[in-house]
Design goal:
Blueprint: H1 3-28, H2 58-62, H3 77-96, H4 100-122, H5 127-147, H6 152-181, H7 188-201, H8 203-226, H9 236-249, H10 253-261
């Protein structure tokens, strides 16, 4: 077995483990709970989970998707995000290799997964998660620039300005949407998320992210209107999906323009 295959397997397993942790963070932070205490437990009966009940994906399968103590069904969301994290970590490794760009990619993906979990569950995107994620990305960008003897202005300051510009654009969309629909069209968390996306992907691709996310969300929005359903659709997960697509396909504005010109 080659070293690349072994690395891929290890990174996938690490992704599964991190995915399990991200489930905890995405559930506990919006509920103002510590991410360390209490220990992992069933949210229905408070049964403290043993180590063999905490193995990502495998425990869910062997427990039949139910709590060992109270037999209440465990949400499929848990293994889904574990598998998703493992898969995206692996794809990042295959695309970038083992380097600082890989570290930036999995940091970016990790933050998007956490905010997607909390947004789907509670319609909340945590400021703390976005702040920590942005700081980590900036530190990684600084290290990348210093190691490769690159300009800090180009590699760090401009991305920060890109993030600010992306934030401003979505804020303007919100103001316009609020005016047209006479109600809140976007949450504050979505707008703050755009700073993080613009910081990492650049201003141009952050705008593309908004359009791809809107396109993905459109069918569900139409269904909601047909059903006269007043439920609000969380936009954070759609922005996250679009951002990850752009990250892992290396999509850029020139590719998009060439596609339409042809």
């Amino acid at each position: 077995m080659s070293l690349e295959v072994l690395n891929g397997i290890m990174i996938f397993i690490i992704g599964l483990i991190f995915g399990s942790f991200y489930n905890v963070v995405g559930y506990r932070l919006p509920n103002n709970m510590s991410i360390a205490f209490p220990a992992s437990h069933c949210i229905n009966c408070n049964h403290k989970l043993k180590f063999y009940e905490l193995i990502p994906v495998i425990s869910y399968v062997f427990l039949g998707g139910k709590c060992k103590a109270c037999k209440k069904r465990i949400s499929i969301v848990y293994p889904f995000f574990e598998l998703l994290t493992g898969t995206l970590f692996l794809l990042s490794y295959l695309f970038f290799g083992l380097n600082l760009k890989f570290l930036i990619a999995i940091t970016f993906i990790s933050i998007l997964i956490i905010i997607s979990i909390s947004d789907i569950r509670y319609y909340i995107i945590s400021d703390e998660v976005l702040i920590i994620g942005s700081i980590l990305i900036i530190i990684e960008m600084i290290i990348y620039a210093l190691i490769n003897d690159l300009s800090l202005v180009k590699e760090v300051l401009i991305p920060i300005l890109n993030g600010a510009g992306s934030f401003a654009i979505l804020y303007l969309f919100k103001v316009l949407g609020d005016f047209i629909f006479k109600k809140e069209s976007l949450g504050g968390g979505d707008i703050k998320l755009m700073f993080f996306i613009g910081l990492t992907l650049g201003f141009d691709m952050s705008i593309v992210t908004i359009f791809i996310a809107s396109f993905i969300a459109l069918p569900l929005s139409i269904i909601s209107l047909i059903k006269n359903d007043n439920n609000v659709l969380p936009f954070g997960p759609y922005l996250s999906i679009a951002a990850v697509i752009i990250l892992l396909t290396n999509l850029d504005l020139d590719m998009i323009l060439n596609f339409f010109v042809k």
